[in-house]
Amino acid sequence: MKIPQPDILIESESKIIIMGSISVNAEYTSERRYTVSIPDNDFNDSIIEVRSSVLTKIRDKIKSMQSITHVWILDLVLFLGSICWGGWISYLQSNGTYTRLEMFIYGTLLFGIALASTIAFIILKTIIKNNVSVNADDLLEMIPDPQKAIKRK
Fold this sequence. Notes:
Blueprint: E1 7-12, E2 17-18, E3 28-33, H1 40-43, H2 52-66, H3 72-93, H4 100-142
């Protein structure tokens, strides 16, 4: 965006206004005036008062939500479940001969771990999603609604 050229207004002590050329020996003050254009979304905007205690509560809640942005246990459970499902499906596809211990490990244990970790992943994901939803609802209750607030220009 190009800044417009200012209108230069110069006044000397004798209150004679000089535009353009400046006398070197005269004492003068100068003033620059710029045209200001306000974007439409700022022009139609209004100021809403919010208590500082409300802003402090909102900031604290957002900071607490930032610390839970990445839950590593979800990644671990999903990784474990994927590995176990892959091992169990490979066991089902193979035509090899297995000992009783291998059959127990690949056929029963991997299936149990895969099923348990998948269920744990779903439960943990649901808990975290509900927690975020509750926090968002709390924040929406704390923040004033601009449509219902008293507006000041």
